[in-house]
Structures are given as structure tokens and as C-alpha cells.
Amino acid sequence: MINSQIPKITNLKSDLNPGAVMQHVIRFSHVTKRYGQETALDDVSLEVPPGVVFALLGENGAGKTTAIRVMLGLAQADSGESEVLGMNSRTEGLQIRQRIGYVPEQPTLYDWMTVAEIGWFTAGFYGDGYESRYREYATQFELPLARRLKKLSKGMRAKVALSLAMAHEPQLLVLDEPTSGLDTLVRRDFLESMVDLAASGQTVLLSSHQINEVERVADIVAIVRDGHLLLAEPLDQLKAMTRQLTLTLADGATGPPPFAGQLLHERSHGRQWQLLVRTTGDGQIDLLHDDPAVSNVEVHAPSLEEIFVAYMQSDSLPSQPGPSRPAAAEEATPR
After folding, report:
1. Going from the N-terminus, what domains does the chain have, and what CATH number goes with each?
2. Phi/psi-derived region of residue 43, left when phi > 0, alpha when psi is between -120 and 50, beta in every other case
3. Which of 5, 161, 267, 324 is the most exposed place for a label (fewest CB within 10 A)?
4. 92-131 as b/e, with b when 16 or more CB fall inside 10 Å?
5. What is the pTM of this model?
6. What would the pLDDT profile of 77-113 be if each residue is shown by its tens digit?
């Protein structure tokens, strides 16, 4: 079983809010959630610091939405503990939901209301200033205040939902597949606004399978597969420590030499092997250049999408990097 215990992540932007004393905005400790015989989350532990865009990545059904429901108190974990903004998700779910902003994949809006009316209506649940801030966001997003919601495009409806979620200035904004079905330019504008929020000290949790877009905005990424948390770490660190190697073996070599790193994925075609590995430094790669079994080494920095696909395809991922060597690879034409 994959070890899903993740060490505490360093606050990447603590200097943005020097007066803050909160060490983490979200904390999961050994959270497990089952639905009948299906395990949606399996012993998941993580911490999210304030002032970052935290991307929760995974395929449909991986456990992303379940994790969000548990942290917001909308579902009860079978074991483990979840905290949001220092509050217990199990016993203080209502208080959590009052203090965060939440935009689900399909937000529920009163279609008979206008853009302005739904802001006025929602303001009744919050303090002074909510409606004026909502109108500021609506204007910024170029929303037609007098138009009824049922006549808005999906992109405009998403912007209404985001405006409603942000108008009470929450410390945490939770977005569950918010760009699903949106046009490319709308998705770009939407995600770039998340960077602005994080820069102001707010925390954004973004659940998505749009890997290319997430790569542009995320500070920290977590990858979930079949309820297991495979990793959670700063995106820059993940990319700096991951390399795609294309090895051409020397005549007579039967396979690549051992590599002191974590093998994520491999495939071969004749004497050429392609490996996606986690390294601890370029010195490991230099050793391959000097190995007589290898006639040529090409090194490529993979994209987040390539890393994500490797984690999705891997049959076994060790919890700690160690010496590894492809035992066999399916013959395939390099893509």
C-alpha cells in the first residue's frame, strides 16, 4: 500500500502576512473515509499553510471531492482528524462553512434572480459590506447586474458563484473543478484571479484535473489516486527533483544500470529506454553518463502533466527513494 503520510509543508508565503499565527489552514491526520465497501480516502495526512494556491489533482473518482466534503464537515471521516482554520471538521462543520468560500463544480443558484439580486439576498447571511464587495467583484468580472441568472452562460455563472464566495473575504477559498466546461480564455482569467488572492494572503484550495492550467498557478500540488495521497509538495521542488531520462544502451547491454532514485515510469524500444525518475541531485545523472552500459543520455525537465501521468500509470511507488532499476518494460514506440 502506498504510504500517504506527508510531512509538514513549509509556508511558502509566510512573509505576506507576518502577523498571522496560524500554522496551517487545512490539516488532515490519517483520514479514512469509506462508502460501503469502497474506500474513498485511505489514511490521508497533509497540511496546507496560509497564503498559497494548493492544487488537489486526481482523475475523476480519485477522492478529491470526498476530501473536500470531509474538511467542510459535509461528510464524516470513518477515522482520523480533519481541521480547517483551527476548527474540527467533525464538530464545527457549520462554523467552517460560514468562514470559508466554497465553489462546487455545479453551483446552485436561484435562476429567477438577477446578478444583483442574488448578491443582495446572500448579503443577509453575512455582515456589513458583503453586498458592496460582491458588486465590486461582479463589476470586475464584467457581469451584467440586471440580467437573470438563467440567461447567463456557464462561464458567467461560475463568476457569479466566485463573487458570492469571495465577498465576505474568507481566509480560505475552496474550488471543486471550478473551470469545468468553461472556455479557454475564461478559464485562464479565472485561474489567474486565484494567484491574486493568494498574493493578498488568502489560501486557495483548487481541486482539478486540468493539469496544464493548474501548473501556471499552483504553489503546492497534491496528487490523489484511488483514495491514496501519492505526494504533496511545492510545485517548484517537485519539478526540480523530477527528470525524464532517455538512455541509449551500449551494444551488449541488457538493461539500464541501477539508478539511486525513485523510478516513476519506464518504457523501452530496442536499445532506447525512457525513464521518469525522482532524483536527489544531478550527480546521479552524471554517473549514468560515465557508465559503460550507456552510450548516450538525454535529460528533459518534464511538465506537471507528464509527472501526473507517470503517477497515474505507475503500478508501485515506493514511499522513500532508493536504488531502482527497470526490471522489464513493455516494448513501445516512444511518443
Report:
1. 14-236 (3.40.50.300), 241-324 (3.30.70)
2. left
3. 5
4. bbeebeeebbbbbeebebeeebbbbebbeebbeebeeebb
5. 0.81
6. 999 999 999 999 999 999 999 899 998 877 889 999 9
